[in-house]
Design a protein that fits this description.
With 390 residues, the protein is α/β, with parallel strands linked by helices.
């Protein structure tokens, strides 16, 4: 076995614009990175040193003369712009068929099946902002006990319930029921539990969100690593995104800072294999809410903790930083945006200043990870290991 540790950190929604097919998704001109760098709250010196602003298309910020890592941008090949599809592609699965979405709400037969098995009525059933939907339907939910079911531009069914009306474990059970129902034609990427608390006018979502995903339709880089005897870790939503498939060890997180703290703890463990990290605050708390300054501040905070991670890296370690889609806080609407994503690669054995250019698929990460461990290629993508290794 090869004595390596690879850390893949996904900054959820940290797109860098310029997706060639953005217009097909109604997202022409979106650019998450450009929007947040315009904020006075943005300051990411560690990522800048690694080459973030040497990436093609980021000329609005001056790059560095000697990047400390390899850098490039990745183009999504899958027909989607959501977390599930994006992470599956990072892990080596290109989804040519989009997962179903419901701009007019879910069909009655789906609602009837959920209602029959849960014993609950249903409110809303339309695309909605998560904070707005509890504001508009929270009181009626408390009075009636009916579940608030809503969706978005993504392939999701979300169930919101007040924790005093529907205990969290019961809400999870209802979501598991919905997950069992939503297969085949209506196989959405995720069913999401959205518990909230508070009183009318002051409802707030709690951190006990839980995602119930489809099982990936094929093996990923994690499955291949496990088959070869390596260890896999998931931090944050990774376990949920892959429905547990290929994730041997997992830890939940409260927010981005906690996610990096948990990653630093895994960094202190002795293992050979992959640590796959998702930091969701960029997307969930700031991108969807179109809060540019808070998004920029979250990037600044992450970059500060990244400095600690870089200091603690061992000679055998390789770090990759990327994203799964965009969610431009300076763009119209509240949905994800179809963008390319940055890629930063760093480690003692990584050449400095290598420009990987614009690559054809997120799955190049998966192919490279398997190449690093000399594991047979079973995923989509083209490895860049021979380009970046010293």
């Amino acid at each position: 076995m090869i004595d390596r540790r690879v850390f893949v950190i996904v900054l959820d929604s940290y797109g860098c614009g310029n997706a060639p097919d953005a217009a097909e998704f109604g997202d022409e001109g979106s650019n998450t990175l450009k929007s947040i760098t315009a904020s006075k709250e943005y300051n990411t010196p560690n990522m800048r040193k690694m080459g973030l602003f040497n990436i093609e298309g980021t000329e609005y910020i001056e790059g560095v003369s000697c990047p400390t890592g390899a850098f490039g941008r990745l183009t999504e090949q899958s027909r989607g712009k959501d977390t599930t599809i994006g992470h599956w592609e990072i892990a080596g699965i290109v989804s040519k068929k989009p997962l179903p979405t419901y701009p007019d709400g879910f069909p009655q037969e789906v609602l009837d099946a959920i209602s029959e098995r849960t014993g609950c009525g249903i409110l809303c059933n339309k695309p909605y902002s998560g904070t707005d939907v509890i504001r508009d339907y929270g009181q009626e939910h408390i009075t009636s006990g009916d579940l608030i079911i809503y969706t978005s531009a993504d392939s999701v069914l979300q169930i919101a319930a007040h924790e005093d009306v529907v205990p969290v474990e019961e809400l999870y059970r209802y979501c598991e029921i919905a997950r069992e129902i939503l297969v085949g034609e209506h196989g959405v990427g995720r069913v999401i539990a959205r518990p909230f608390t508070g009183t009318p006018g002051n409802f707030v979502r709690t951190p006990r969100r839980h995602d119930f995903s489809l099982v990936p339709p094929a093996d990923t880089m994690m499955d291949a690593l496990i088959d070869a005897g390596y260890v896999t870790y998931g931090v944050g939503k990774i376990y949920d995104i892959f429905a547990g498939k290929g994730i041997q060890n997992t830890v939940r997180i409260e927010d981005n800072v906690d996610g990096m703290r948990k990653t630093l703890l895994y960094q202190g463990e002795d293992f050979k294999g992959l640590c796959f990290v998702n930091l969701v605050d960029f997307d969930m708390k700031y991108g969807h809410r179109r809060d540019t300054d808070s998004y920029a501040w979250a990037a600044t905070v992450f970059d500060g903790i990244l400095g600690t991670f870089l200091e603690r890296m061992e000679d055998r370690d390789i770090l990759m930083i990327t994203a799964d889609h965009g969610c431009d806080p300076g763009y119209k609407g509240t949905d994800h945006t179809r963008e390319q994503v940055p890629l930063l690669v760093y480690g003692k054995d990584i050449k400095e200043g290598v420009n990987l250019g614009t690559r054809a698929t997120y799955a190049d990460i998966a192919a490279t990870v398997l190449d690093i461990f000399d594991v047979k290629q079973t995923v989509a993508g083209e490895s860049f290991w021979n380009i970046v290794k010293k």
